[in-house]
Amino acid sequence: MLFLSRNGQAPVKLKKGTPTGFEQYQIHGMKKFYYEQEHHTTFSQCMDVPGCRIWWHAIKVRSEKTAISATATQTGLRLNFTLGLLDADAALNKRELVKLKSAGIDLFYVYRGGHDAELPAGTHIFFHLDISKDLFVLMQQNPAFSSLSRAVKHTVKKGNGHINSRPVPINLYCATLIEDIRQHTYEGFAAKVYLNTKVWSLLQYFARHFAGTPAPSGTNRLTPQDVLDIDTLKAHLKQHMSQPFSLEKLCAALNLRHPQLQAQRFKQLHDISLHAFYRRFRMEEAFNRVTRSGFKISFISEKLGYKSAAAFSRAFRQHFGYSPAALREATRGTS
């Protein structure tokens, strides 16, 4: 998607690279281009991964309110994350009025062409995923997306484009997934596999909240001490990831009472269970070691606390879609 001014001027010329003052928004491995006009500067980045095109836009608006036209490069589903602190008004497909709320996620069915928007002065950050038809077919085959799939079909049949009437909130877990994409340093095939896994996790997160999955029990407001205890749990898990997961032993080692309550508080803050966090962190470390070290798969498996190399390979394949050996071979083949 390209953001161009809606002021009747001739189309602007896109420049490759990063404009001055936008260096903090750069993402490794993405194509970068920008353009500048009197009232705003737009810096865009994109990358293709299997089934999806990832976009990141940073727009600095200098006037009180600037009208722009966002040009979609293809027709299809777009999952938009409004990351800045400012709201924006948009006319989806030129006619459907939409409020883009700060820290909100919206799913749109967009048609190729112009989509108008008005942005107030300040910095606007939009991150979005252009979902391919093939990826949407896979989503439809997964029961976790059944409610969302029905909503997409119903909305498109009516001729509308905004799938969710209320934005799904960007919580800590969702923000962490986006930050993983922003901060990754992988190259080539490894980057595509890593980013594809993050994209799928974001889609699952949106589908779960769109379907209205009930909040975990024990949703009283967390105290500062609760958050400190959760941070302590996370730090201990990261330092002892080779040890089998045990909630009771974990809390006992840290002198934390009521293990089940600690687990509920963790999920309330992070949107995933403590055990799921433990598994994901081990997979992050496993991916790094498989793609960047020369250690044998059996050695990596042992150091990460798996009972066998076979168990490690099954867990790795389930998470990333490739066995450790297959990913290492493919990565070396593209390096």
UniProtKB/TrEMBL annotation:
It comes from the Bacteria. GO terms for molecular function: DNA-binding transcription factor activity; sequence-specific DNA binding. The keyword Coiled coil does not apply. The keyword Transcription applies. Transmembrane segments: none annotated. Residues 231-330 form the HTH araC/xylS-type domain. Keywords: DNA-binding, Transcription, Transcription regulation. Gene3D superfamilies: Homeodomain-like. This is AraC-like DNA-binding protein.
